[in-house]
């Protein structure tokens, strides 16, 4: 895959959305922020080209308050599996602020979750802060234990794909 050439972000796995909603509720009244990471849809049994968000990573060094959350960009994973960001608005507003849009960067999709953090209390946006379609997929997620099941050959293969 060429640098900067990343597959489309199709949507989010149902279980991952539930996790993000729960994390945002647990963090309330402070903002929650995480990095969304995707898995190729075909690996999840979905006959489409693109990524489905299957993971939300909480970056070390993230700080939050009732009005903002910030992440240290130097501690974020930086690879083709990054889809964008997810963060909460404790005030329930489901649209990005100007500051939000400035932090969206090169992400393919960004989710804002609003209080009271129920199933429909979220919206997706593109990197310019414009609303975008982002489907919810009922897929089986990979076993988290498999994440750590790799060796040097797997690392070399991943590097060759870049």
TrEMBL record:
One MF term in the entry's GO annotations: metal ion binding
Keyword Zinc listed: yes
Superkingdom, natural source: Archaea
InterPro entries hit by this protein: JAB_dom_prok, MPN
Gene3D superfamilies: Cytidine Deaminase, domain 2
One GO BP: proteolysis
Domain MPN: 10-140
Protein's UniProt keywords contain Zinc: yes
Keyword tags: Hydrolase, Metal-binding, Metalloprotease, Protease, Zinc
Name of this protein: MPN domain-containing protein
Annotated source species: Halocalculus aciditolerans
